[in-house]
Design a protein that fits this description.
The longest helix is centred in the N-terminal third of the chain and has 22 residues. This protein has a six-stranded parallel beta sheet with strand order 3-4-2-1-5-6, with helices on both faces. It has eight helices and six strands; from the N terminus they run βααβααβαβααββα. Among the domains are: about 110 residues, Decaprenyl diphosphate synthase-like (Undecaprenyl pyrophosphate synthetase, 3-Layer(aba) Sandwich); about 35 residues. It is an alpha/beta fold. Helices cover about 45% and strands about 15% of the residues. α2 runs parallel beside α3 and α6 crosses α7. Bound molecules: 3-methylbut-3-enyl trihydrogen diphosphate (2 copies) and magnesium ion. Magnesium ion (MG) binds next to loops.
Length: about 230
Amino acid sequence: MRRIKLPGHIAFIMDGNGRWAKRRLRPRGYGHKMGVQNMFKVCGHAFELGIRIVTVFALSTENLARPKEEVEELFELFRTFFGKKREKMQEMDVKINVIGDISVLPADIQQSILQMMEETAHCTRGLLNICVNYGARQEIVRAVNLAVAYGRFVDEAGFSSFLLTGGIPDPDLIIRTGGELRLSNFLLYQAAYSELYFSNKMWPEFSKRDLERAIENYSARDRRFGKV
Ligand code: IPE
Ligand code: IPE
Ligand code: MG
C-alpha cells in the first residue's frame, strides 16, 4: 500500500453471511462458518498492516431472536472458536476482549471465553474486541443505570468509562459489509466521529485487498471533528 494514514481502531459489522451462503445454495450456518474463517484472515491482515485495535460485531442482542436452529449453530461456532483457538490467538499475540452480555450463553462457552481472555491478557501485538450479544442501546442504558447507582453526575469521560468499551479508544473507521447502510445498534455512542465505510461484498468474501481499499479510502478523508 502507498504511504497512508492508518486508523488506530477499525470496527467491522460482519454482515452478509446468510446471503452469501444462500447464493451458493448452502445453509446459512455454512455462511457463518466461512464468516469465522474470514474473520481470522481479515483481522490478521489488519494487525499485519499495523492496526492496533480491531472490533468485530459477531452477534447482536437482536440476533438472538432468530430461529433457534440458527442461534444454536452460532453458539456452536463460538464453542469451537473460544474453545479451540486459544493457542492460535496467543501465537498471533492478540489480546481478546469479549464485549456484551455473555450470561445468556451456555456455561461451557462462557468459561472458554473467560479462559481465552485470561490466556491472551499478556498479548501486546493488538487488541481484538469481539462483540457477542452486544447492543449499543442496552449498553447505554446500562451505563446510565451504573451512573445512577453511583449516585453521581458524569461528564463525557465519566460516562464513557461506564460503557462496555470503557478505556478503549473510539473506532476511527467502521466497515460494514453486506450492502446495508445502517449501524444496526452497533457502538452508537462511540461512533460519534467514526468514518463509515460500506462494502457490497458479503462478509465471507471480503478480502485482504478489500480491507486495504477501505483503509486507503479512509486515509484520503478529511476528519474535521466539527472544526474548519
Ligand atoms: C452476519 O450475517 C452475522 C450475524 C448477524 C450473526 P447475517 O447472518 O446477518 O447474514 P445476512 O445479512 O442474513 O446475509
Ligand atoms: C448486524 O447485522 C449484526 C452483526 C453483524 C452481528 P444484522 O444482519 O443483524 O443487521 P440487520 O438486521 O440487517 O439490521
Ligand atoms: Mg444480516
